[in-house]
Amino acid sequence: MADPPHIRDYSLTGADTSRAKDAGLANADWYHTEVPRKAMKELMQRTDGPAIRDTLLWFALLAGSAWGGIAFWGTWGCVPFWVVYGVMYGSVCDSRWHECGHGTAFKTSWMNDVVYQIASFMVVRNPVSWRWSHARHHTDTIIVGRDPEVACKRPPNVFRLMMAYAGVLDMIDSVKVLARNAAGKLSDDEKDYIPASEWGKAIFAARVHMAIYVATVLAALIWQSWIPLMLIGLPRIYGCWHMLITGLIQHCGLAENVTDHRLNSRTVYMNPVSRWIYWNMNYHVEHHMFPMVPYHALPKLHELIKHDLPAPNPSIWDAYREAIPAVLRQAKDPEYAYRKPLPPTARPYKETVVHG
After folding, report:
1. Which is higher by pLDDT, 158 or 137?
2. What does the domain layout of the chain look like in residue ranges?
3. Running DSSP on this structure, what letter comes out for residue 249?
């Protein structure tokens, strides 16, 4: 008689946490494509120019679309402006939060910090706790019981994944976490990856964010207008669709409990607009292998190591054609993972898969 399937515990303090540590998956030695030292040094070179250019364009689009949305309020003419504003607020914020959190977008550290704080507020993430959460995500990528940022848990909740594109459920969950933090409470998972010395900072940051949201709601009530909420808060719902379309294909349908990013991450070729919104995070295998390479150097890194990587999906649509069947199969068979073939020029996968 076959053994019953393993029920995964994605919390950071449960049975699978011990399993990951015992299997040597916590803080493991990950596979990396060999890159000449000189080439890597050049790729890791930081500069302010590209990020300043992109940030000024981002702020200009935010300001211009907000002006148009307000100026044409009450007419159909405001709709395209709010569509642009929503994406600039609810989707661009994710990639800016991410790259500035790594400290690689700008060479000047305070610029990274300023944009990180702004983008964290927009994406409704505690800037203190999520900095540490993402560090863990890179240390233990898609390791059950260790990674706090697993988006496609197994078996997947297909309904929730579909609803994610509407942004409502994720917004509710994010605000609940901020409210809990603002009340002075950190979860056991948060206490696991946030150093105790940072707990007070996380609580303070949550209180600042919640105060701004409360002030925004009060302004909308006093002025009897939706405009304050259209500017702050609601764009995280109506404008997050691009963030979800690009973000959910990073790892969904691929392997967990492995130590080779070629098995658990996906690189996807995208159009220039999506790449700008996403800040080249479509080169996701490359980013996870070498997270200190700035976003603007990822295309060069890709060209340098693509001989050792699975072929990229040629489009977002093609990535979904790969990911959707895999996720649906995982709903019935949680042990399944889509395995992308390697080119003849690649070194073999690092076979350290730990099954349930």
Report:
1. 137
2. 15-174+227-332
3. T
